[in-house]
Amino acid sequence: MKNDSIFVITTLQPSLYKIHRTVSFTHELEEAKKIVENNICDIAEEGYYLFCIIEETVPGIYNIPENEWWYQWNPSTGCYEPTEKPDKFKIAVGFGIA
What we know:
Blueprint lengths: L5 E7 L7 E7 L2 H9 L13 E7 L9 E8 L4 E5 L15
Antiparallel strand pairs: 1-2, 1-3, 3-4, 4-5
């Protein structure tokens, strides 16, 4: 992680071609994880956004995220839980700042 990193939090619907929205950014990874894992302010909108991603990025133009942390909504627990990047999203990067 670089000193000037920001951690951008974006929620996504299950399709690459559907809606996604950036809900927050922080300067600390742990704060970003807390927002996602605790579904602060119902960022999942009761499961409407099946996936959530935290992307580490730095200032610049056309940046490719340094790191990604993926989460999937679990309706049984009402929380986002860590997951691998889904295959359908493997061709895409830069969800939060495009």
